[in-house]
Specification:
Oligomer: single chain
Helix content: 10-25%
Number of helices: 12
Strand order of the largest sheet: 7-6-5-4-3-2-1-8
Largest sheet: 8 strands, parallel
Shape: globular
Number of strands: 37
Structural class: alpha+beta
Amino acid sequence: MPRSVRRLIACATAGALWAGGLGAVAVTAEVAVAAAPASALDNGLALTPPMGFNDWNSFGCNVSEQLIEQTADYLVSSGLKDDGYTYVNIDDCWQTHTRDADGRLVPDPAKFPDGIKGTADYVHSKGLKLGIYEDAGTATCAGYPGSLGHETTDAQSFADWGVDYLKYDNCNNQSDGTRADYVKRYTAMRDALKATGRPIVYSLCEWGDQNPWEWAGDVGNSWRTTGDINDSWSSMLGIAKANMPLGADSGPGHWNDPDMLEVGNGGMTDTEYRSHFSLWSIMDSPLLIGTDLRKATPETLAILGNKDVIALNQDPLGSAATVVSSSGGAYVLSKKLANGDRAVALFNSSDAAQHISTTAKAAGLPQRGSYAVRDLWSHTDYDSAGTLAATVPAHGTVLLRVSGSATAGAAALLDPALLDTGVSHAPDHIEPGKSATVDSYATNLGALPATGVGVTLNGPTGWTVKAAGATRGLLLPKGRTFSTPWKVTVPAGTKPGSYTLSGTVSYDQPLGRKQVTVPLAGSVTVEVPPPSGTSYLSDLDWVTATNGWGPVEKDESNGETAAGDGKPITIGGTVFAKGLGTNAPSTITYYLGGGCSKVTATVGVDDEKNGKGTVEFEVNADGKQVADSGVLKNSDGPKPLSAEVTGAQQVQLIVTDGGDGNDSDHADWADAQVTCS
């Protein structure tokens, strides 16, 4: 989906008018080496990553003075202002479609009856700052007047109105595609802002097209490193991965910007939103809230207002996290802090719980006998002898602050030992109506013994989980593991998918202090083989499904947003009643159980994108590619695809973007079927 169309769709939706775990995980680095950082813009602003609010992700073009003022009120009343959220930023669609007789931008009087200046005055009266949006092109992404060729006039308007922050987009840019042109256009507005004499944070939004981290440090205070985010796990994850290698290129006054926060908008789970917020914070990204705060849940506010996590982002050293290791979807990131501490993120990007492990030394701390460790989501302090490990739930993040100072290490001996807890030895899957044995474990990572250890484990409602061994132990020495086997029975009729097993581990603090209880979690996968004969895949339950935009759809095309918003699957004028509608990149996994022989489909780019889109379809059986469509465009029409899957336990239907990004990549698996014995 193109960036301009993304904005147009969002604005149209808003009704706007338009102008035209035990041993350590084996890890290997998987990320690219970053280029040398650009120098910093010398305007004295954004010495820590900007924090605030932007209306676009939640409201699109439905922006107004009332919304901005109510958001400012809520930032104050909720305590978010005190947490550091300072900027209240207006995105696109705030102006009229024409300039005035003097060539100046005109705020829409229906949306902003007091103008931008009146709105700014109100925001300033709350002790907050106002941001605004414009574009380094002839028109904004939503079709309103752009600033290309009007930089001096527009910058002066912003200054006269009391604007404190400018987001500067890249639509309709008339560019020749060279870096020199990008530098020229963005430098022109930098110079115009400087000439006004008003301090205005300058945020470049050129989508990472020309690797701005290599040149924009002395042009802007931040720069977008990727295309637009959307409120989905796949979008957030893809952007996070692209931004991770760039930490060396940011610092005080010049920051990598992987786009605004989606926390609270409903497209991800709270576990995923905590990962989103953890990663953006540890990568020193601007923290711009993108949800309707007037309707925010307590869970959303708890994430956005986590002072321990915000402190990492706002640390004055401004040293963004680097990737210590990554393998199999398990990431370890480390961020150096001004007082010598390290922030360590154990991030699980995979679809099942994973054990992730590192050490304080690998994270960059000196060798010590004991380290003070704070879990920033549970707000609990622990002692560690050096190993930092956890079984991290699917799509989850354990975020730690670790101190290696001698004083902190000695004091930590009075804190409870850090325990590595989880579920191990789970089978690859359990079928409904059957049982399997799993083991819970608790490993003492502290410098002193843990005593009075007790373990509980539970499954989802209707499941049976019974201990098949001891659930209590008197003493757990340093480095030792307490393990308990459990018989897990899955009820008949349970749908395929990954299910969480959760429980607790309780133990006593050193010197007889109060008992500590920590969570224990793991997962098991429930899988159901297809019935005998030939079945449409859209009539079966998949194990997992990921998609570039919106959910994978059954028997309709991908509508990019909510489930069920697609159209009849249509390729080259042919309409198909059955199939799967996706948007690259996409992976759909089905369990076959070794009893199937063939997967067939008619594949192609859906007609609804008016000829746009370039994709490639692949079928993998137990990790081995067994079919490939080659790169297809809409003009290629429907293409039959057949894959031999005899004996395979799993099959994956994969769509990639054809190597040119996922603009308009609506990919259909029409009439997708599987034949089983």
